[in-house]
Amino acid sequence: MPDDSDPANTLPVYVIGAGPGGLAVAAALREQGVRAVVLEKSDAVGASWRRHYERLRLHTTRRMSALPGLRIPRSSGRWVPRAQLVRYLEKYAEHHGLDIVTRVEVTRVERSPDGTGWLLRATGGRELTGRAVVVATGYNHTPRLPSWPGLASYGGELLHAGEYRNAGPYAGKDVLVVGAGNTGAEIAVDLVEGGAARVRLAVRTVPHIVRRSTLGWPAQANAVLVRRLPVRLVDRAAGALARLSVPDLSAKGLPRPETGLYSRVREGAIPVQDVGLIKAVREGRVEPVAAVESFEADKVVLADGSRITPEVVIAATGYRRALEDLLGHLDVLDERGRPVTHGGRTPEQARGLYFTGFTNPISGNLREMAIDARKIAKALSRRSRQGLSRRSR
Ligand SMILES: Cc1cc2nc3c(=O)[nH]c(=O)nc-3n(C[C@H](O)[C@H](O)[C@H](O)COP(=O)(O)OP(=O)(O)OC[C@H]3O[C@@H](n4cnc5c(N)ncnc54)[C@H](O)[C@@H]3O)c2cc1C
C-alpha cells in the first residue's frame, strides 16, 4: 500500500466522470489504498443511464457487467433493466464509500506548474491538483449528427436518439429512424410496439445481427471466447452461426453483410443484438430503406434517389468522444479523437494520465471497464511504490 507520509501521495487521484467507468476505477483505487476523488458534472452518478430510453436493458449479462467488488443483484434478472442499473451504480458508490463531488465539470487538464502532477481546471474557476488523472467521461459523450446537406432548412421534426425516451409521443406517426446500430434497431422496435403508424429504418451499412442468446448461451460469452482469435477465423465462424440462427431478410431489404462480423468490429462496428428487429422486419413492421443522403424543405432524400416525407426523423447516428477541448493540447488523442492508451498504460508524453471506457470491445464495455479499473489501480499503486523507493535510495 502507498505510504501517505509521502507528500506526493497525499495528493488525490482525480477521476473525471461518475459513470460506471469512473466509479469502477475509484473503487479499485480505494481497494489499493490510493485516495481517489471523482468529479462529476451532473448532479448524480450514472448520468448517462438516467437519460437513456426507458425500455433499454443491458445486452450484456448481469454477471459479465458487474463492476469490481459488488455483484449486480440476482433480482435484476439476466438482462438488467436500465433503472436497475442506475440503482446498482448508486449502491456501488455507497458500498465502496466513494468520494464523489457532483456538479463539477472539468474543462481542461494540464500539467501542474511544478511538473509533478496534473492541474484540472473546472467550473466555478476551480483549480485542482492531482498526482494522476483518470479520464472516464464516456464513449457516448456528445450526440453526433452527420452534416447532411439541407438539414438547416429542413422543416420536419428531427431529434437525436439521445433525446428519445419512449414511443408515447410517436403513436400514430410516420417515423424514420436513421442508423441501424443497436440503438436505432431498438428504437425502431420500440416505436412499432408503441403504436407508431409506420416505421422505416434507414440503413447505410447493413449490420450484423446476432441473437442475444442461443439455447441459453449468451452472445457475449462467444465474444469473450473469440476475442483473441484470428479475425478471419472468427468472421467465418460468425457467418456460419448467422446462417443457422438468423433468417435471410434480403427480400425485406436487409441482406446479409458482405464484410465479416469481426472485421467490422475491428472497424468499430459492434453487431446488433436482436431485441425484436428480426421479427419486426420479417413482418414488415419495420421497413429498411436506403441511407439518408440529404434533406429538402419537408423531404428526406435517400441514397437510392427516393424522397420520403416522414413526420418525425430520429437520428441514431452515434456519439462523439468530445475529448479535444479537455485534452487536445496534450497529444494523447488519435486521428479519430480517441485516447492512444487505455487501462493500466499511460501515454509516454503524459505520464500519470489514464483512460477508461473509450474502447468499444465486442466482449462488452462494462466488462472491459471492470478489467481496466483493476489495471489502472495496480499501475497507480505501483507508481507510488516506485516513487517511494526511488526517493529512499
Ligand atoms: C444505449 C446504450 C446501451 C449500452 N448497453 C451496454 C451494455 O448492455 N453492456 C455494456 O457492457 N455496455 C453498454 N453500453 C456501453 C457502455 O457500457 C456505457 O455507455 C457506459 O455507460 C459507459 O460508461 P462510462 O463511465 O465510460 O461513461 P458514461 O456512463 O457516459 O459516464 C461518463 C460520466 O462522465 C460525466 N462527465 C462527462 N464529461 C465530464 C467532465 N468534463 N467533467 C465531469 N464529468 C463529466 C458524465 O456526466 C457521465 O456521468 C451501452 C451504451 C449505450 C449508449
UniProtKB/TrEMBL annotation:
GO terms for molecular function: flavin adenine dinucleotide binding; monooxygenase activity. GO terms for cellular component: cytosol. Transmembrane segments: none annotated. The keyword ATP-binding does not apply. InterPro entries: Auxin_biosynth/cation_transpt, FAD/NAD-bd_sf. This is Monooxygenase. Keywords: Monooxygenase, Oxidoreductase. It holds the Pfam family Pyr_redox_3. PANTHER family: FLAVIN-BINDING MONOOXYGENASE-LIKE PROTEIN (AFU_ORTHOLOGUE AFUA_4G09220), FLAVIN-CONTAINING MONOOXYGENASE.
